[in-house]
Structures are given as structure tokens and as C-alpha cells.
Amino acid sequence: MGVRDIVRSLAARAGLIVHRWPGNRFDAMHDALTLLRQAGYRPAIVIDCGANRGQFAGLVTGIFPDTTIHMIEPQAACWPALDEYARARGKAHVHRGVVTEPGVARVRMHRGGDEVSTGAFVIHAGDAEGADLEADATTLDALFGAKVGRGDRALLKLDIEGHEPEALRGAVRLLQNVEVVLTEVQFFDINRRGLQCFSDIAAVLASHGFELYDFATLGARRRDNRLRLGDPIFVRRDSPLAADVAWE
Q1: What is the pTM of this model?
Q2: For 176-182, what is the mean pLDDT?
Q3: Residue 95, C-beta contacts closer than 8 angstroms, at least 6 positions apart
Q4: Which CATH class is domain 26-105+137-241?
Q5: Contacts (Cβ under 8 Å, ≥6 apart) of 10
């Protein structure tokens, strides 16, 4: 546990929340997932798209210790850490590759010259960056469409640097049985790459029966603190999580 985690833990015991200025920008991923648990949510399956070296996996399985987690990651340098995590924990599976839309078997990616990047992204038409990684690709439906049922109360986490719309296009069957979606979004078209923003993702998920439930993180650009990125949580409209709409 780092110094920041210790400070946050001590503050939480005192009923306080510690975050960077300004007040409407925050990282409350742990708190948001904990609130889901307190509301009675217990996912039997978590699907972690963009697992990197297992940072989210460690967090989410600490809150939902009985879940089975599937970690999807295209960067080979991340696989040893994920394999070790899976061996140590059990009930964990590593999938090597990218999730995307139907009909795509390989994708070109950009990591910025690093062997491991937390910002590696699939290159889209019009991107100026060159490819420094090619990865096998499949769809979420191919991986899980026939394996996940409503009774699993599955949580789908997407952190794939602007490739979320393509992943959702390949998850039509899976989304029928997912209860919670946690996805990274951008709030404006960063660098005019032509990628979809929060309202677009929200509309796609709404068409699959989801509604906005919470925000786990909000992040601003450093220059002027304009809201840039976030991690909203969406739940199925027929989920018990969405049923309580009382004011108090």
C-alpha cells in the first residue's frame, strides 16, 4: 500500500475523501465499486478489457472476491504479470488480444515507443501515429456470448482508449446478459481524432437497455482543468440497482 492509499484509508475512517483540486474532478473507482457492493451487487463474472498489468483486476476482485475475472490485453509485455496474477488467485483467465467489431482479425496499435503503455490504442483512419504493435482481434460475443447468462450479473469494464464503440458493436449478444458496464469515455473529440464521445456511448448503451448510474472517475486536462475523460457506470434498466429511485 502506497502513501496515497494510506492517507486515503485514514481519511475514509474519519469520513473524509481526499482528492486533487478542483473539487469536481476525482478518482473514486474504489468507492464507486464499493457502493455497488453495498447496494447488493455481486457479479459472478467480471470482463476486464484493457487489463494492462492487472491494476483493475486487483481492485475489483478485492471488492468482489468471489468473482471470476477475464482479463483481455494485447501487449505481450503485460502477459507475464497477468499470468502470475491468474496463477496466484485462481478464478482468473488471460485473453491475449483485442476486442473489436465483427469481421476484424488483426488490428494495428500505437504505444508511443514504450514496451508497455497504459495508453496503447488501436489506430483509426486519420490517425497520424504509426503502428508499433499488431495484435490478434476478436469480438466479445465470440469470447463470451454463449458463456455469460443473466444470472451471472456480469460486469463489463472497457478501457481501450477510444475503441469502445467497436468493442460494443461486437458485443450485441453479450450485452443482453451484462448487468453493469464501466467504460472510459471522452467528453470532447480530443485532438479531433473523430472518436465517439460520452453522449455517443451513452446512446449506444441506451439502445441496449442501459441507463447511467454513477461516475467512478472524472479527469481534466492540466492546462485549464476542462473536463476531458471519465469512467461512467451504466446499469441495465431492469437491474435491481436501478429499481431504487427514492429521493432519500
Answers
A1: 0.90
A2: 98
A3: 70, 71, 72, 73, 143
A4: alpha beta
A5: none
